[in-house]
Amino acid sequence: MTDIPRSRRAPAVGPALVGTLILAAFAGILRASRPILATQDNWWAWDVGRRILREGLFGVDPYTFTRGGEPWRLHQWLANLTFGGAEALGGFWLLAVVVAVIAAAAYLQLGLLLQRRAPGFVGLVGLALAATAAPAHISMRGTLFSLLLVPPLLWLILRPPSGRRIVGLLILFVLWGNLHGGALIGAGLLLVHEIGHVIIDGRSRVRPAVAVFGAAIVGMCVTPYGPLLLVDNLRLAAEARDTRIVEWLPPRLLAPSALAFTVLLVLAIVAFALAGHRDRLPEGLLVAAAVILAMTAVRNVITMAMVIAVVSAPAMSDAWNGLRRSTADRPPGQVRAFDRVLAFVIGLIGLVGMLVVVPRSDDVRAHAADTPIDLIEAQAAEGRGQRLFSMDSWAMAASILGGPVVATFYDGRVELLGDLQPTYATIIRASPDWDTRLDEHCVTDLLIPNDGPLYDAAIRAGAWKNVGTQELHGVTAAWLTRSLPANC
Fold first, then answer.
1. CA dist., res. 100 & res. 138, Å (int)
2. 474 CB contacts (<8 Å, ≥6 apart)?
3. CA–CA dist 231, 221 (Å, integer)
């Protein structure tokens, strides 16, 4: 049985509750201190929400000239609408605060769930390791909502079969299916857990397993596009292995950024090896699935660390108590009034901290990281109708800030532009035929670093003219232009 033991269902003991709140508040403040528009994904996550508010659920790509006007289903439309709505209501400051609060709420849920599974020290260690597993991926994008919904998913997965469990999973997956494609991973984890119970419990568990997995599938199909978003996410998951985007590559377990996840993984393996109970087969399969998913793509590490921490927490607690030969944790429920007050104060300090560290300015420059905004706006003001090839990390900003006169070649959206990635790589590296590829697509402008191979090749070619630069942190962005190629 993988349900939360009754002896551990009481509130966490005082020090553990305080520690949980400290870590959750720290996660929120850390997120709030970072630029809200740090990557191209953040730019389009925000701008798509603004467009939905203005136009409704638009169905074609408005950003690129290579795919402009072609069908584009908004896989994360509800997440985008949340971001765009927050910015419309209170500017970038409110948007950044909302993102920080979601991050803090995700880890607060995780911490409270861990304290139910393994009260005291072990739960805090699991929370600390999970919270530091991949902090760079806590950003304004649909993944943030997967982070928020993994703890309630695990709470429902680990409960015994019931009608309420089925309804809860249905509601969860209706919401998740409209927020982020990570719902597909959640359904996979649910299926693995149920298969584990079918193996140890036999035919009596088949119908409950079919019911809960069916609820997940039905929930993911309740979208403005019907089941098409689920089909798209399945296709994207199958094609992702062919991309060379960093977040889709396997993590390096000994890299500094992955050490917390590696430590958590080792602790989980040791704990399950020491436990060795057959009734923990569903939990063991769940951890194994989480490890496989994490090792498939670095973007999965942050959510799979949550899964590993929660599922392995009882085994870790048993191993820890076995090593100590006693249970040193206080009995559940002994929360002093002072602890409650201290927990409230910490939560309040965390919220105030998130509000304070977010820049008060509503100028996009205060919330963007290493983006040549001045250069983009200056060139867009000329109104030449540029067909721009840009370094992908700047392309979405160029489309948004320069629109409608600037349209880009490629901006990193794999679900729509994945087939252009090899051509993008050929051009940005100035590989053979780079100029032919630009001519084929009638590119008139380049936005690239001035110390890269493409800049050197373009200047040597003679047809390109540098019309502006902007200094960023560690790099200078250059805008080059030329006449429209004769074949266009």
1. 9
2. 370
3. 9
Letter string b/e over residues 34-67, b meaning 16 or more CB atoms within 10 A of that residue's CB: bbbbbbbbbbbbbbbbbbbeeeeeeeebbbbbbb
Q: How many residues does the chain have?
A: 488
Question: Cα separations (Å) of 232 from 41, 95, 244, 444?
Answer: 18, 28, 19, 33
Domain ranges (residues) in the chain: 6-357, 370-481
Lowest pLDDT segment from 109-123, 193-207, 317-331, 346-360? 317-331
Tokens linked to 302: 């942050």
User: Which phi and psi angles does 335 have, rounded to 5°?
Assistant: -110, 115
Residues 6+ apart with CB under 8 A from 316: 118, 122, 125, 126, 267, 268, 271
pLDDT tens sequence across 68-106: 778 888 889 999 999 999 999 999 888 988 888 898 888
Q: List pLDDT tens digits, range 350-383.
A: 666 656 666 666 677 777 878 999 999 999 988 7
Report the C-alpha dihedral over residues 24, 25, 26, 31, rounded to 10 degrees.
Answer: 90
